[in-house]
Amino acid sequence: MKNCYLGVDVGSVSTNVVAMNEEKEIIAKVYVKTQGKPIEAIQKGLKDIKATLNEEVVVRGVGTTGSGRHLASMIVGGDIIKNEITAHGIAALNFVEGVRTIIEIGGQDSKIILLRDGIINDFAMNTVCAAGTGSFLDRQAGRLDIGIEDFGKMALESKNPVRIAGRCAVFAESDMIHKQQLGHNQEDIIKGLCDALTRNFLNNLAKGKEILSPVVFQGGVAANVGIKKSFEEALGVEVLVPDYHDVMGAVGCCLLAQENAFQNPKTQFKGFEIVDSGYEVRGRECKDCSNLCEVIEILQDNIMMARWGDKCGKWSNSIKENHQQLA
């Protein structure tokens, strides 16, 4: 049996699970739609990754990231929890030599990360404007009745791209419809949308920041060759897309879990058997003070595993103390 490390990235749109061996080679990856059910997505991700592995493995460490990183760590038994900026930065540094700028665009958010001398120097995130995300492109592709997998290729066929207002998703949609009504070619409209998303990203997230090459494009949208081309035209440099661009957050977690294992050899991983466990999520309002905190409780097979949401730590700390006593 071979040693491996797991990385789990739980986002609002997708949950990614990656397995990496001791040589830092990705041996399996799984993409699961979160669909508002992160616990089920995590369980399915673990089940699928185990089925994908061609041989029996020993998990030596687990790292979690994404908006659901704390929940994922509690369920799988994570050894290290890191934010998305750190996870994506570490992944890029290990797979693209000398990287100095990371552009990351996912389904619901986007981010830019600046690295200098192998260290994260600056970053910015967008979690509000839909016009700079993958969901925006999916919606416009559907409106144009084009598969998102063909969207980027059609953009490359454009001869006279139209300019579409990209500052806001609502304005972009109405402007795109107006261009359709004027009779512009579909490929020119698609290229205009790619350029609009690129302008939105650079004018908002990258404003005032020095973008230096090598530039790495990560996230699910990096598969869109039209967006890649628009970034290259706007920046005047080559934009690199790593092989595992769509799961780089989870890849970074694998690398961090391996690094952590050197210091702490004993993993907290609960085993693949947790896919068969039953979980229940409950919410309750604590009325012990004027804060009226909404406390979230997670139960595994009717056993209280975690609480959070309390500002004072009264409920979350009681769970930690109980676990320490049991240990």
Write up what this structure looks like.
This protein has 327 residues and is an alpha/beta fold. The protein has three domains: 2-88 and 249-276, Nucleotidyltransferase, domain 5, CATH 3.30.420.40; 98-241, 2-Layer Sandwich (Nucleotidyltransferase, domain 5); 279-326, no CATH class. It is built from ten helices and 13 strands. α3 (84-95) crosses α9, α5 (148-156) packs across α7 (186-204) and α7 packs across α8 (225-235). The two termini are 28 Å apart. The model is unreliable at 321-327 (pLDDT under 50).
Outline the secondary-structure elements:
Blueprint: E1 2-10, E2 14-21, E3 26-33, H1 38-52, E4 57-65, H2 69-76, E5 80-81, H3 84-95, E6 101-105, E7 110-116, E8 119-126, H4 134-143, H5 148-156, H6 169-182, H7 186-204, E9 215-218, H8 225-235, E10 239-240, H9 248-263, E11 279-285, E12 294-300, E13 303-308, H10 314-326
Parallel strand pairs: 1-4, 4-5, 6-9, 9-10
Antiparallel strand pairs: 1-2, 2-3, 6-7, 7-8, 11-12, 12-13
